[in-house]
Amino acid sequence: MGVNIAAINMEWLMNYLDKHIKPEQCHDLSGDYICISNVHTTVTSFEDEEYCAVQNGGLMAIPDGGPLSTVGHMRGYKNMSRTTGPDLMGQIFKISAQKGYRHFFYGSTANTLKKLADKLLESYPGITIAGMYSPPFRPLTNEEDRFIINKINSLEVDFIWIGLGAPKQEVFMAEHQGKITGLMIGVGAGFDYYAGNIMRAPQWMQKMNLEWLYRLIQDPFRLFYRYFHSNKKFIWEAIVKGK
Fold first, then answer.
1. 54-84: string of b/e by CB count within 10 Å (b at 16+)?
2. Using CA atoms, how far apart are residues 208 and 230, in angstroms rounded to an integer?
3. CA end-to-end span of the chain
4. 36 φ/ψ sector (left φ>0, alpha ψ -120 to 50, else beta)
5. Do 46 and 198 meet the contact criterion of CB atoms below 8 Å apart?
6. Containing structural domain, residue 236
7. DSSP string of 116-171?
8. In sequence order, what are the residues at sequence separation of 6 or more whose Cβ sits closer than 8 angstroms to the Cβ of residue 84?
9. Which pLDDT score, from 0 to 100, does residue 9 have?
10. In a domain, 103, yes or no
């Protein structure tokens, strides 16, 4: 469907990041971004050439959605597995104190960011939260944009977690590619998960690629049309037609 989904698994990705992110010096991935891709973002990319270019313009687009890795298996990538944004966050948070990683969180509300900081400091002793920023619910002015770029760059962070939701977070990362030092990763609802605002699906639902159903039950009015349209189109285009 036009999106270059990385045929990877979590073990490969963690080894890759460990090799290329070096806190003691300017790391290889600074200024780039990772898209956390699922059925919704893939269908949106299929329907919007500009957004597809954003998905393909970063370091990689990883398979957050279970159907993406399922299609990967069907196409011969047997080691490919679902690599979710929240799982990636947790894996990196666990080793952050040991590795000396520095984090910046961009997105959500001030209240959620406060809860997120408290939860992370409690759950991951020694983690370094270098900064947080809750942007206004409107486009940034040029002055505001320069301010946040300078602020992040002055803090010399390794990971900039972007929690704006798709497609807004991916567009933000593409627009700031090469301007912000550190690796940007768009994690959607990841902030809310780690702040305790919403719960993730039980492990058995995650393993059966049913986390989307759990989220739909939690927020049916917002997600019903998205899932109905995206899932139907993905099945037809990627599985039936093999795009």
1. bbbbbbbbbbbbbbbbbbbeeeebeebbbbb
2. 18
3. 5
4. beta
5. no
6. 10-15+27-240
7. HHHHHHHHSTT-EEEEEE---SSPPPHHHHHHHHHHHHHHT-SEEEEES-TTHHHH
8. 36, 64, 206, 211
9. 97
10. yes
Total count of residues recorded for the chain: 243
Structural domain includes residue 133:
yes
Per-residue pLDDT tens, the chain, 243 aa: give them. Answer: 999 999 999 999 999 999 888 645 555 788 999 999 999 999 999 999 999 999 999 999 999 988 999 999 999 999 999 999 999 999 999 999 999 999 999 999 999 999 999 999 999 999 999 999 999 989 999 999 999 999 999 999 999 999 999 999 999 999 999 999 999 999 989 999 999 998 877 888 877 777 777 777 877 777 677 777 888 899 888 888 888
Number of domains in the chain: 1
Does some domain include residue 4?
no
Helix (H/G/I), strand (E/B), else coil: 214: helix
For residue 2, being part of any structural domain is answered with no
CA distances from 224 to 41, 128, 218, 230, 234 (A): 15, 38, 11, 10, 15
Q: Report how far residue 194's alpha carbon sits from residue 190's, in angstroms, rounded to the nearest whole number.
A: 6
* Cβ contacts of 228 within 8 Å, gap of 6 or more: none
SS3 31: coil
CA distance 106 to 85: 15
Residues contacting 67, CB < 8 A, separation 6+: 39, 209, 231, 234, 238
